[in-house]
Design a protein that fits this description.
By secondary structure, the chain is α/β, with parallel strands linked by helices. It starts with a helix and ends with a helix. The strands form three sheets. It has a five-stranded parallel beta sheet, with helices on both faces. Strands 3-4 form a two-stranded antiparallel sheet. It is built from 13 helices and nine strands. Pfam families: AAA_5. InterPro entries: AAA+_ATPase, ATPase_dyneun-rel_AAA, CbbQ/NirQ/NorQ/GpvN, ClpA/B, P-loop_NTPase. This is MoxR family ATPase. Belongs to the CbbQ/NirQ/NorQ/GpvN family.
């Protein structure tokens, strides 16, 4: 274990549990992520949208003092989006082909953290290129340049998935087996209250309590299958709290949460719950 990560592990609570850090009711989520990354393991964060996966990755980057190279996967993510691309450049009137490294190679060569968001949105045929960087080899044979790249010791990988969403595909076992998996649930109760105070512009204590109750009620509806998971997104709730500083809270809920949903019955369900809290 490298010295930097030993030092990070010794003061993780002081550094991250506080202003603008990752907050969760279960403190072992952060602890386990720190341990895994300190041991050179890859981390896969599973959880619904807006549950704090990216916030945890950013907090780990800050904790270890390592910049983070990010990839936001989609159905169009290909090898070039991960590794880089070739382009023609001009030098003293002469043209030459130059390789521009992408986030994966940048992270490997600089010893940064690599964050792969929504990794299960990428095409299955694209992801096997990552296998050799995710196991003990920590190397890559770049198919675009024929160069073999060995990652620096501080290199680490964090990935995130939202399971069951449109456009996602299950990760194959060979890839999933290369990760330590940490499940990130929605925050609730006192932890959510602290998140709202920390992340939003809202400082009205009574209204903050009402939004915490709204989140709990929405989550009950999500678990019952009445509304989709994105309706209970903490990210959407923070946006709504910001809006509520400048408009009526019920209107803020409509703009920040219900109007994002596709079906009218889902929108109505959210507004019915909100109307009982914000009269």
């Amino acid at each position: 274990m490298i010295d930097k990560r030993k030092r990070a592990f010794s003061f993780y609570q002081e550094e991250l549990i506080g202003e603008h850090g990752f907050l969760a009711e279960d403190e072992t989520l952060l602890l386990d992520a720190v341990i895994a990354l300190s041991l050179g393991k890859n981390i896969l964060l599973k959880g619904p949208t807006g549950s704090g996966k990216t916030k945890l990755a950013e907090s780990l980057s800050k904790l270890f003092g390592q910049p983070m190279q990010s990839v936001n996967c989609s159905v169009d993510t290909d090898t070039e989006a991960l590794l880089g691309f070739k382009t023609i450049t001009q030098n003293e009137g002469a043209s030459k082909i130059e390789f521009i490294p992408g986030p994966v190679i940048n992270a490997m060569e600089k010893g940064h953290l690599l964050y792969i968001d929504e990794i299960n949105m990428a095409k299955p045929e694209t992801l096997p290129i990552l296998n050799s960087i995710l196991d003990y080899r920590r190397m890559l044979a770049n198919p675009l340049t024929a160069e073999v790249i060995h990652a620096k010791e501080t290199f680490g990988v964090i990935a995130a998935v939202n399971e069951g969403y449109v456009g996602t595909v299950p990760l194959n076992e060979a890839l999933k087996n290369r990760f330590i998996i940490i499940d990130i649930p929605y925050v609730q109760g006192e932890v959510l209250r602290n998140v709202i105070k920390q992340e939003s512009k809202l400082d009205n204590e009574k209204m903050i309590d009402q939004f915490v109750r709204l989140s709990a009620d929405l989550l009950v509806q999500v678990k019952s299958g009445i509304i989709p998971e994105e309706a209970a997104s903490v990210r959407a709730l923070i946006d709504t709290c910001d809006l509520a500083v400048y408009m009526e809270p019920l209107r803020a809920v409509r703009r920040g949460i219900s109007d994002k949903l596709e079906e009218e019955r889902e929108k109505a369900a959210v507004l019915n719950i909100a109307s009982t809290l914000f009269k």
